[in-house]
Amino acid sequence: MKIKYAIAASLMLSIGAYAQKEELKALKKIDDKETQPTASDIAEFKRLLTEVEPKMGLATPEQQSDYNFYKGNYSLVEMMMNPASASTNFSLAVDSFNKVIEIEKNGKKKHTDEVQKEILPELKTMAITMAQKLGEKKMYKESGFAYAAAYQVDPKDYAILYNAAASAVNAQDWDNALKYYEILDQSGFTGESTAYVATNKATNTVESFPNKSTRDIAVKGGLYILPKDEKVPSVKGEIVKNIALIYNMKGDTEKAKAAFGSARKANPDDTSLIIAEAELYLKAKDMAKYKELIKEATQKTPNDAVLFFNLGVVTSDADAAEAMNYYKRAIEINPKYVEPNINMGVLTLKDEQKIVDQMNKLGTSAADNKRYDALKKQRDDLYLKALPYFEKANQLEPTNKDVISLLASVYQALDRQAEYKAMKAKL
């Protein structure tokens, strides 16, 4: 009986192998067609792949390689036929082609050369081109996905992943930006390199070349002039800084603190990073650490107006008086700095709404009318204190519509109709 079972099992294996061979031959016949596949070709291709898939467990390495090669090609066809599934089918195609390379690594390399030298490079170029076009249209999230797809094709090209991270930041897609930046950080990528550039004589624009020899050939051909080798600086500091800032933005305090530690080591003199870390400790109500960091920042660049303006922004919610001192210092350093003047005016009016709310709750009694007049004077006093800052900002930037709008509101509240109408006319 056992012998009979063994013969039956052997026969079944033979039949299975034969069926696989016939299906794979049919797949090859469709795949080899020089003309564009018809709808019936694609339907038959899909049917054959579906039919042969469960038999792959008994297949030889060569048959498994064939199957994954055809599966990859089918995913590409699906990608073209159904743009909505492009991202999914792109990934499926790359996975299938990588399996071909893995299967053929220690055996017959039937498809490896085509996959490595033709298909994957073409997919990478396709994804990068798409990413660039999407970026030009300000479709940053989609551009980031396209760059990430190109990175999937070539996981050693970290420059592409850096572009994916930058696009994700532009799209405010913080989760993916963080994921990409952490991969870059762990990889040791710095982006430091040499750019080989020359000026196009016809367009008078500077263009980059993939390597020195290509650039030099172009210059010798007479179409380009002024060849230069430009050093591209490291972006390591930016990577760790963005990791820290994103964790901080997401409210993950402990991870943000650890990331700030790494970022500060990479960027010891970056005062914007010190301010961001200080803001983290301010939100955590660790005032001792906050003040320590603020002191460090002001000691590093005591005459940096932008630094003091940023300190005012960070501090305004927690301590309005301290924020005003920072804004005043920014104006002292740079009297033509518009933003601290605007913020000084806005901060001066921070209690205005509370006063207005109290005024709106009053009735019409003599006592209420008296209280109303007192509150109105308080409100007008705030407007009068804020007014010089808005007027200074308007003097510095006469066409700034935000400032004009603020001035119009203040003039109207103070019943200065001529100035109000002049501002409204500018709007």
List keywords for this structure.
427 residues; mainly alpha; Serine Threonine Protein Phosphatase 5, Tetratricopeptide repeat; 4 domains; three-stranded antiparallel β-sheet; 3 strands; 5% strand; elongated; disordered N terminus
Structure description:
This protein is mostly helical and 427 residues long. The chain has 4 domains: 2-186, no CATH class; 193-232, no CATH class; 269-335, Tetratricopeptide repeat domain (Serine Threonine Protein Phosphatase 5, Tetratricopeptide repeat, Alpha Horseshoe); 336-427, Serine Threonine Protein Phosphatase 5, Tetratricopeptide repeat. Helices cover 74% and strands 5% of the residues. The chain has 20 helices and 3 strands. The chain has helices spanning 2-31, 39-52, 61-81, 86-103, 112-136, 140-153, 158-170, 174-187, 212-220, 236-250, 253-266, 271-283, 287-300, 305-315, 320-333, 338-348, 352-361, 366-396, 401-413, 417-426, and strands spanning 193-200, 205-209, 224-232. The protein has a 3-stranded antiparallel sheet with strand order 2-1-3, with helices on one face. A hairpin with a 4-residue loop joins strand 1 (193-200) and strand 2 (205-209). Helix 17 (352-361) packs antiparallel against helix 18. The protein is elongated. The N and C termini lie far apart (98 Å). The model is unreliable at 1-19 (pLDDT under 50).
